């Protein structure tokens, strides 16, 4: 049986500003991984908007930790929001959103059903 989702490490989900938020525990974990203090991590790689902390994007509009050749540079400690993709509540609860996500993410099995994906 084919999987409903098999990550291809393509980086499509790493593109665009404002999608990757981090909480205090995630900031500390990523900072430790990068051998930085949480304060240094925050000032170098993040910004605050509406009382939430977000990871910056680079000039190419990809997450600052995404490298086109090496993929995610913090993969072992990536934020929960990254781990959750593509099983976001808005996608698993709405077939139209799932169809849109299928078009954007090559890891979602195009031959699978919405019901299989939700399972």
Mean pLDDT metric? 93
> In whole angstroms, how far apart are the ends?
13 Å
In DSSP terms (H or I, runs of 4 or more residues), the helix count works out at 6
Q: Count up the domains.
A: 2
How would a crystallographer describe the biggest sheet?
3 strands, antiparallel
> DSSP strand (E) fraction?
5-15%
User: Structural class, from helix and strand content?
Assistant: alpha+beta
Low-confidence stretches: none
The succession of helices and strands, N to C, reads: EHHEEEEHHHH
| Annotation, overall tally of beta strands | 5
Q: How would you write the strand order of the largest sheet? A: 1-3-2
Cα-based radius of gyration, to the nearest Å: 15 Å
Helical content band = 25-40%
Shape: elongated
Model description:
The longest helix has 10 residues, at about 25-35. This protein has helices at about 25-35, 40-45, 80-85, 90, 95-105, 115-119, and strands spanning about 20, 45-50, 50-55, 65, 70. The relative contact order is 0.22. Strand 4 (about 65) and strand 5 (about 70) form a beta hairpin. The chain folds into two domains: about 15-75, no CATH class; about 85-119, no CATH class. The strands form two sheets. The chain has a three-stranded antiparallel β-sheet with strand order 1-3-2. It has a two-stranded antiparallel ribbon with strand order 4-5. The chain has about 120 residues and is α+β, with helices and mostly antiparallel strands. The model has no long low-confidence stretch (mean pLDDT about 95).
């Amino acid at each position: 049986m084919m999987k409903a989702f098999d990550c291809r490490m393509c980086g499509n989900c790493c593109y665009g500003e404002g999608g990757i938020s981090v909480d205090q525990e995630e900031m500390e974990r990523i900072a430790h991984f990068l051998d930085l203090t949480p304060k240094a991590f925050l000032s170098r790689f993040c910004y605050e908007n509406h009382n939430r902390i977000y990871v910056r994007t680079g000039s190419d509009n990809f997450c600052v930790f995404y490298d086109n050749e090496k993929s995610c540079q913090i993969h072992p400690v990536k934020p929960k929001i990254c781990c959750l993709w593509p099983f976001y509540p808005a996608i698993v609860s709405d077939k139209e959103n799932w169809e849109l996500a299928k078009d954007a993410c090559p890891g979602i099995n195009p031959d699978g059903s919405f019901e299989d994906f939700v399972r």
